[in-house]
Amino acid sequence: MADTMKKGTLEFRNVTKSYGTGEPAVKDISFSINDGELVTLLGPSGCGKTTTLRMIAGLEMPTAGTIFLGGKDVTSLSAAQRNVSLVFQSYALFPHMTVMENTSYGPRMQGSSTKEAEAKAADALKTVGLTGYEARLPSELSGGQQQRVAIARALVLQPAVLLFDEPLSNLDARLRRRVRQEIRDLQQRLAITCVYVTHDREEALAVSDQIIVMDKGVIAESGGPSKLFFNPDSAFVADFLSEANLVDAKVDGTQVRVGDLSFSVPSRQIVSGATKLVLRPDVFTVGAVAGQPSITGNVTKSAFVGRGAECEVDTPLGELFVFLPRHTALPEIGTQLTLSFDPQSVTVVR
Amino acid sequence: MNVYRLISLGLCAAGLLLLPWYALQDSFFAFKWIKSFSGKEFAPALLQVSQFGRGWLAPLFLLGIAAAFLLTKPWNDIKLWARTLAIIGIAGVGYLLAQGFAISAQGYAFEGLKAFLPSITGGQFGMGAGALFLAFGFVLIAADGIASMGYFRGDRFVASSLIIVMAAVVLFVFFPVLRVLWAGILDSSGALSFSAFWDRFATRKIWALTPACLWGGSGCGVAWNTLWLALLCAAGTTFLGLMLALIATRTHTRGKRILRLLTVLPIITPPFVVGLGLIMLFGRAGIVNTFLEWGFDIQPSRWIYGLPGVLLAQLFAFTPVAFLVLIGVVEGVSPTLEEASQSLHASRWQTFKTVTLPLMMPGLANAFLVGFIESIADFGNPVVLGGNFSVLSTDIYFAIVGAQLDQGKAAVLSMLLLAMALFAFWLQQRATRKKSFVTVTGKGDTGLATPLDTRVKRVAVGVAIPWLTLTVVIYGMALVGGFTKVWGRDHSFTLEHFVKAFSIEHGQFGWQWTGAAWNSLFNTLMFSFAAAPITAVIGILSAYLIARTRFKGQRVFEFLTLLSFAIPGTVLGVAYIFAFNVPPIEITGTGLIIVLCFVFRNLPVGVRGGIAALSQIDKSLDEASTTLGANGAKTFRYVLFPLLKPAIVGALVYGFVRSMTTVSAIIFLVSGETEVATTYIIGRVVNGDYGVSIAYSAVLIVLMVIVILFIQWAVGTRKLGRRGPAVTTSASTLAAGGG
Question: Nearest residue on chain B to A57, judged by CA atoms?
Answer without folding.
Answer: B627
